[in-house]
Amino acid sequence: MFTYYLDLALRSLRRNKALTALMVLAIALGIGASMTTLTVLHVLSGDPLPGKSAQLYYPQVDPQDIKGMLPNKEPPDQVTLIDGLNLLHAGRADHQALMSGGSVPVQPEQSSLDPFYVEARYTTADFFAMFDAPFLYGHNWTDAEGEAKAREVVIAKSLNDKLFAGANSVGRTLRMAGTSFRVVGVLDSWQPNPHFYDLNTGSYAYGEQVFLPLQTMLELRLDRNGSTDCWGNGGGGVGSILPSDSCVWLQFWTQLDSPAKAAAYKEFLVHYSQDQKALGRFQRAPNVRLRSVMQWLDYQMVVPDDVRLQNGLAFGFLLVCLVNTVGLMLAKFMRRAAELGVRRALGASRRALFAQLLIESGVVGLVGGIGGLLLAMFGLWLVRQRPSDYAVLAHLDLSMLFTTFVLAVCATLLAGLLPAWRACQIAPALQLKSN
Amino acid sequence: MTMHPILAALRKHKAGVVLISLQIALTLAIVCNAVFIIGQRVERVNRPTGLDENDLFLVTQQWVGAPSGDDPAGVEKLDVMQREDLAALRNLPDVASVAPSNSVPLLNSSWTGSLSLKPADTLGKGNPRTAYYFTDEQAMTTLGLHLVAGRAFNAGDVQHQGARDQRDRPVVIVTQALADKLFPQGNAVGKVIYSDGSAAPSTIIGVVARLQIPSTGSFGNDFAWYSTLVPTRLDASFARYVVRAKPGRRDAAMHAVPAALYAVNPMRVLDDDESVKSFADIRASAYRADVGMAILMGVVCLILLCVTAAGIVGLTSFWVGQRHRQIGVRRALGARKIDILHYFQIENLLIAGGGVVLGVLLAVGLNTWLMTHYEMTRIPLLYVVTGVLAMLAIGQAAVFVPARRASNVPPVEATRAA
Q: Could A240 and B236 be called an inter-chain contact, meaning their C-beta atoms sit closer than 8 Å?
């Protein structure tokens, strides 16, 4: 029966080629546009560390002075150096790391390469274990080495390929900012998207090439990038100069393995703020936050407004395309009232007619879906040509591929439902008589 | 012609009529808001910075192994290095003038603070925010700013400081917008203001017509025109120089810069793509996302209108086909071709009319929703009215071809079986 209905559907679709083409094209355009934007949105709002991000928390405390205080105001997005070190040394979390970003000049040994700047992350040693950064060669520096301001560096795979032709470079020397560093580890390709642990240096497709101990950076006064917020008469520091203690410029991340531990840690942050207030450092009442990775990304509104706007626009477009298809299909089915009347008179049940008409709209949906998929691939290719930082990430993955087809077929079946139902209400006798 | 037969016929096709009206309504709502967004972006991109942007470019460079600016000796050394660079650039044959500056408009790298009429005051309480440009006496000619009151900086005004030092700012130049905000009664020149909660006064010695702040993000929307020029060279391990080339010689001057700077001191990082950037490129990258969004919205609107027009053509064609016999009967009873044409045109006008009424409501509703979720203002009436007229026009254009075909149905059709 199915093949017969399919045959009928194809015959009927062939009869009105222009109309069929119009319906297929409308569905394809709608699906193509909405899948393109949905894929971009899906990529941008993804989990940077699946399976791990739920245990990672970002503590915020409020060390600002009393001026400009507003009730319910959020604490600063980063921590001061002194608070960061205090929280780090308290060691209340399962893992914790204090970090900041910057860039350092690399002076290659090979004379064929000019000095160049690379993005750097200055961090304490727990960073790698906490964020599950995979090592290709070697390992990270230890806490003790970090505290001892070791001249040690972990480099990214891409830099290892560039400087050491991809060989195991552990133990080799790397000259940066006029200082010799010993390579202790090489990371495998690793780039969480969004760049959740420091959104100030760019949210997407951003990866550091070198990782240095924070304490080493503090001693050498290496250049920083990112955001520095100061209050009172705090100096922000430019170039090689460190910001003062009334400036927040570091990120402090913790791993807390259970919700109970997270609750306890939040409690600890409140106590810490109270202690600091008793000491006279903090002036405000305890104002703390402890957000998980996804909550943090949500709070920081990391997905650009324009991307959400485009997605809304595309789905509005799909809606219009569907209404268009419903209208056209309705007209088409009603036009065939006579033919349907004959089939009814010859004994076809309403259910059979309904199935036949739905198969016809399903065929339109399927063809439109394939067209939409091709258009979405083309759309994503266009997105990748754009210069925005997230552009390179716009690829269709398997789940989105599946979603495209389900969306296309469901949408068209839904669009076929009303016309098919209306067409089935035809009284066969009336149709036969009127002819 | 009386409306009655048209309305009676429409009642026969309720579902079709409702669907096509709905499609017109949705199209109108989406297109109105999208065009409004395009309009806002275009307006944003086209706002002048206040600079004379032709022949202007920016040099960003960083010394390797430079002294730190922590101690006075280091600051002095850095200042000497910066002045050597400035002298070398000013000596280039294609260069008209050069000024050091921590930033330029649209660069999205800014030093911001707040200004007050009282000493040791802080942000809030209506004190305006401002973005500082730390530069020297050649800033006015180099940037091409238009002085409307007072005087420009002279060499005697110019100081230098380590980038972190808090040095007093005895004289400043502000924009007209900032002067109006601080001194609504006018005459800002010669008045005293205090910057960043400092107790040391700064005298306004001049007012420029217009100068945008570096930030183009939403963070800067409130004070986009509140710029302050400070005659101070900042000394740090990196420096930016704004260069005005002689008319038409920008590319030649840009090409000559790296060699000239390397000749002064080879221990620096200068890469061709980013370090020497024309202002046109800075403008393009600042507004790239806005332009991209406007183009995308425009394309989607165009396709949307095409789909809706095609839908009207398709549906009307069906109705014409369905009513062949009735049209023949009407023609046989004496209706002229033009009557048949008008019949379908008026029918479309009624359907589209219903659609646009609903569409206006949807457009305003969508706009209200967007206002609560995004940075958006109330859609001006002009956009809605234009959208309504455009929708009705598109409906008429789309219906014309099938309506003409209907009017060509010969009266003899009346005698044939359907």
A: yes
A324 and B311 within 8 Å at the Cβ level: the answer is yes
Q: In the structure encoding, which two tokens stand for residue B169, read together?
A: 């700012």
CB pairs under 8 A between A and B: 145
Find, among B216, B215, B140, B210, the residue nearest to B177 by Cα: B210
pLDDT of A368 strictly over 50: yes
Phi, psi of A229, deg, nearest 5 = -115, 130
What lies within 8 Å, CB to CB, of B225 at 6+ separation is B175, B177, B178, B210, B211, B212, B213
- Mean pLDDT, all residues of chain A: 85
Min Cα–Cα distance to chain A from B148, Å: 33
Q: Widest CA span of chain B, in angstroms?
A: 107
**Contact flag A327-B16 (C-beta cutoff 8 Å):** yes
Q: How far apart are CA B194 and CA A294, in angstroms?
A: 42
The DSSP code for B124 is B
Residue with tokens 């495209």: A404
CB B109 within 8 A of CB B285: no
- CA A275 vs. chain centroid, Å, equals 38
Burial of B45 (0-12, 13-18, 19+ CB in 10 A): middle
pLDDT in tens, B243-293: 999 999 999 999 999 999 999 988 888 876 778 999 999 999 888 888 888
CB contacts, 8 Å: B162 with chain A: 241
pTM of the model: 0.80
Annotated domain spans of chain B: 4-45+289-415, 65-266
Q: Is the pLDDT of residue A110 over 80?
A: no
* Contact indicator for B89, B257 with CB cutoff of 8 Å: yes
CA dist., res. B344 & res. A403, Å (int): 41
- H-assigned helices in B209-278: 250-264, 272-275
Give CA–CA dist B316/A419, Å, rounded: 17
DSSP strand pairing (A116-123 vs A210-213) = parallel
Token pair 């009407």 is at which residue? Answer: B330
Alpha carbons A281 and A289: distance in angstroms, whole number: 19
What string of DSSP letters covers B259-303? HHHHHH-SSEE--HHHHEEEHHHHHHHHSHHHHHHHHHHHHHHHH
User: Exposure of A280 by Cβ count < 10 A (0-12 exposed, 13-18 middle, 19+ buried)?
Assistant: exposed
